[in-house]
From TrEMBL:
Residues 16-148 form the DAGKc domain. PANTHER family: SPHINGOSINE KINASE, SPHINGOSINE KINASE RELATED PROTEIN. InterPro entries: ATP-NAD_kinase_N, Diacylglycerol_kinase_cat_dom, Lipid_Phosphate_FormReg, NAD/diacylglycerol_kinase_sf. This is Diacylglycerol kinase family enzyme.
Length: 321
């Protein structure tokens, strides 16, 4: 990728070396890779000595409170809070860091790792950990829906049902990518009820019947989907995708275009860019998928972009400022 805009170098007077490093390690229970990953991180960060603390998250329900407490402590000593886990963990750490004005580090341990990859952070855990000893610090653009931070995307409608069904199927059949894919296909082809949504921004207001509203500001993810809306992210704006109501045949066609990366050819998608907008439905509270996690939020939903809001540790030879 080239010309990636959501990153801006901080002045060189913002030292990253020598600060306390607190690692929030949150891998799913029973994961065979957890001991090996923890060891790789400990060895890579050994030069930090007593400035290093690794915090295991158990149970996951404590994640938000745990991140908030450690971010508050990091704020008092100029420390850095590091996320090791999937999108939900990275989001929780980012939210806490944003709240307390703390620098954030990322050691990727998810499936797609769009946030880390966008910033040029190594996908190897040991390499990603080593860069935290003396990183460059950069300001990164994030977004919010109501007061919920999202680093990649937020959506409601059909996608929240897909995520809910997927988690149920994974609990029954195991956590694998094939289970996730087959679950999504089954949900799409099972049919769904479209709903009315009122979209309002500073420039215009419209009412649409839709199956899903998908909001994204990660350039890498939009580019992977082969969507023209990638230009929104390049301009540091929100890319908004509305899925028009479709038949089962239309759903199958959408799946095919998604699998073959030809979503731009699908006539059921409507897209536009926005800096901020609200989305109102008839329901007072709805499920919203925020970076892969379902949260219950009050409507109308308030979406907005926050340029250069979050400080993240990245490689010195990573993205251009």
């Amino acid at each position: 990728m080239t010309d990636i805009q959501p990153v801006q170098a901080l002045p060189s007077a913002s030292p990253a070396a020598g600060r306390r490093i607190t690692v929030i390690l949150n891998l799913r229970a029973g994961s065979g890779e957890k001991p090996a990953l923890r060891q790789a991180i400990e060895e890579a960060l050994a030069p930090a000595g007593d400035r290093l603390a690794i915090v295991d998250v158990a149970p996951p329900a404590r994640l938000a409170a745990l991140c908030d407490r450690h971010a508050s402590e990091a704020a008092t000593c100029g420390g850095m809070l590091v996320a090791v886990g999937g999108d939900g963990t990275i989001n929780a750490v980012a939210s806490a860091c944003l709240r307390h004005g703390v620098a954030m580090g990322v050691i990727p341990a998810g499936t797609f790792n769009y946030f880390a990859r966008q910033l040029g952070i190594p996908q190897d855990a040991a390499e990603a950990a080593r860069l935290l000893l003396a990183p460059a610090l950069r300001r990164v653009t994030v977004a919010k829906v109501n007061e919920q931070v999202f680093l990649n995307n937020a959506s409601f409608g059909l996608y929240s049902r897909i995520i809910r069904e997927r988690e149920q199927d994974k609990a029954r059949f195991g956590r694998s990518r094939i289970v996730a894919v087959l679950s999504a296909v089954a949900t799409l082809l099972a049919g769904y009820r479209p709903f009315a949504v009122k979209i309002a921004s500073a420039r215009h207001e419209q009412v649409r019947r839709t199956a899903m509203v998908f909001v994204c500001h990660n350039e890498l993810q939009l580019a992977r989907l082969e969507l023209d809306a990638v230009q929104c992210a390049r301009e540091r704006r929100l890319a908004v995708l509305l899925l028009r109501p479709v038949t089962r045949f239309g759903a199958a066609k959408l799946l095919w275009h998604g699998a073959t990366r030809r979503l731009n050819q699908n006539e059921s998608l409507e897209t536009f860019c926005a800096d901020a907008f609200s989305a109102a439905t008839r329901k007072r509270r709805i499920d919203v998928v925020v970076d892969g996690e379902i949260v219950r939020l009050a409507t109308p939903l308030d979406f907005r972009i926050l340029p250069d809001a979050l400080t993240v540790a990245v490689p010195h030879d990573g993205l251009p400022a």
